[in-house]
Automatic annotation (TrEMBL):
GO terms for molecular function: serine-type endopeptidase activity. InterPro entries: EAD1 (IPR045430), Peptidase_S1_PA (IPR009003), Peptidase_S1_PA_chymotrypsin (IPR043504), Peptidase_S1B (IPR008256), Peptidase_S1B_tx (IPR008353). It comes from Sorangium cellulosum. It comes from the Bacteria. Belongs to the peptidase S1B family. Its EC number is 3.4.21.-. Residues 1-83 form the Effector-associated domain. This is Serine protease. Transmembrane segments: none annotated.
Length: 330
């Protein structure tokens, strides 16, 4: 088994279950001799371990981390498979066909399936989506970790705080537009830009805020790529959302299957649309290709502000209205 993106994601899922706290992961990093200063630690456990493993892979030390974990969990089958360089089974969410649905009732679902909701769209839906995709970029950090972000008016980049938590991180990062596959299956040449936090930098903390960062892009990206507009929107449970992203730091991809919104509050939107580590900072679009959220996390999540809420396997974004309010007051 080679330690490619999917293998690292599966191992990150395993380690996130065993060591969910960031402080625990730091102990492992120190124990195997990795340089903590080169790693982008995150409060999201799976993303945290994916970043650690990505750096460890660059140092050829993934198996050192596996050995460390095996000392504490010698009977863990996934770790033993990793030690033998065999494929680790992917951690899967519930089967969408059998999972407990917390959105519309069963009767409503029957009506939706029978045609009460019109799922037909004009063919220009694809063209508009491709135009919106031009504004989405990959963010590459010195550690090798990657995130997603998108261009808005004023030559500004929007992403998560946990991707670019301060001006120094922004200054060290590279933003790559056009990193995507062509219709011929080839990889297009990425167009790199640097960031200029001295011109503009605003952020909202991931733990106590809304996990967004807005920073100026050096140069004139709007001369090549049309920016996305940010405006207050209404989004509700049952709507469909699409995400254009760089999962695992790979070429730009779109997720639009199983894309139901399952929870909405003033500040958060939760959905079933697929993402991976590296998707943090991606724009979440509605059916009209309006930005409705800033993707920031996924996994077993609770519904914020809801008493006795049970954790469910889903993804979550910051409601774009909350991001707009935050930028205006920063």
């Amino acid at each position: 088994m080679t330690w490619d993106g999917p293998a690292l994601v599966n191992l990150a899922d395993v380690l996130a279950d065993l060591y969910p706290e960031k402080d625990e992961s730091r102990i492992a990093v120190k124990a195997v001799g990795l340089k903590a200063g080169m790693i982008k630690f995150s409060d999201a456990a799976v993303l945290n371990w994916f970043n650690i493993l990505s750096y460890a892979n660059n140092q050829d030390q993934v198996l050192d981390i596996v050995d460390f974990a095996l000392q504490a969990y010698p009977k863990n089958q996934a770790l033993r498979l990793a030690k033998e360089r065999e494929t680790i089974p992917a951690v899967k969410g519930p089967d969408i066909r059998t999972a407990t649905w917390r959105g519309p009732s069963a009767g409503d679902l029957e009506k939706l399936v029978s045609g009460e909701e019109d799922t037909l769209v004009d063919v220009c839906f694809l063209e508009i989506g491709f135009q919106r995709a031009n504004a989405v970029a990959r963010i590459v950090l010195p550690s090798g970790s990657c995130g997603s972000g998108f261009l808005i008016r004023g030559g500004l980049l929007v992403t998560n705080h946990h991707v670019l938590p301060d001006a120094d991180a922004a200054r060290a990062a590279e933003v790559q537009f056009n990193y995507q596959r062509t219709p011929d299956g080839l990889t297009a040449a990425p167009v790199p830009f640097r960031l200029a936090p001295e011109r503009f930098y605003r952020t909202s903390d991931a733990m106590n805020g809304d996990d967004w960062t807005v920073v100026a892009i050096l140069g004139e990206p709007e001369g090549r790529y049309a920016p996305l507009d940010l405006a207050d929107v209404e989004i509700k449970t049952g709507d469909r959302v699409n995400i254009i992203q760089h999962p695992m730091g790979l070429q730009k991809q779109m997720s639009f299957f199983h894309n139901r919104v399952v929870f909405v509050s003033r500040d958060r939107v939760q959905y079933l649309t697929d993402t991976q580590p590296g998707s943090s900072g991606a724009p979440v679009f509605d059916k009209q290709w309006r930005v409705v959220a800033l993707h920031h996390s996924g996994g077993m999540l609770r519904e914020p502000g809801v008493k006795n809420s049970h954790a469910s396997y889903r993804n979550e974004g910051i409601h774009i209205n909350a991001v707009i309010r935050g930028i205006a007051s920063a």
